[in-house]
Amino acid sequence: MAAPAKKKKKIQPIDQDFLLKMETALVVLRNEIVDNLVASSEDFKEIMGGVEPKDLADIASDDIDRKMIEAIGAQELKRLKMIESAITRIKQGKYGHCIKCGKWIPQDRLEAIPYALMCIECKSEDERRNR
Fold first, then answer.
1. What is the pLDDT along the chain (131 residues), one digit of tens a residue?
2. Which residues in 20-81 belong to E strands, given as ranges?
3. Relative to the CA of 56, which of 47, 50, 64, 75 has its CA 20 to 30 Å away?
């Protein structure tokens, strides 16, 4: 006798209260990132303004600091773009749909990663392919 097929849990469309909650969370995240980028930029200016090469160790240390700030800034900018995209999708009525398969992304996933573009299955498949 064949094993019974697993019933897939149907994911319901997102209600307006949840959308409002997620939009608020995304705006808060966006503001935090902008604040961090501004602070990083100030740190970067301070590092660059105070560069008076005394020896090779100082130059290397300043270079490492500068590269770390740039890397953090690049990661945060990428996240900021994803957040802006999610806010736009909310306004367009497309938020919560997987961009790959078109199915609804579970609300638990959206609460964990409010700017998620894909459902867990598609994201896992995408990551396996990119290894």
1. 555 555 555 555 678 999 999 999 999 999 888 887 777 666 656 655 655 555 555 556 666 666 666 666 778 888 889 999 999 999 998 999 999 999 999 999 999 999 999 999 999 999 999 88
2. none
3. 75
Structure tokens at 117: 């573009």
Question: For residues 70 and 43, is the Cβ–Cβ distance under 8 A?
Answer: no
**Any residues with CB less than 8 A from the CB of 97 and at least 6 apart, and which?**
89, 103, 104, 105
Q: What is the pTM of this model?
A: 0.67
Residue 104 DSSP one-character state: B
Phi, psi torsion values for 120, nearest 5 degrees: -60, -45
**Residue 121 structure tokens:** 């299955």
Please report the beta strands in 3-130, taking only residues with DSSP state E, as ranges in sequence order: none
The amino acid at 103? K
Token pair listed for 88: 């736009």
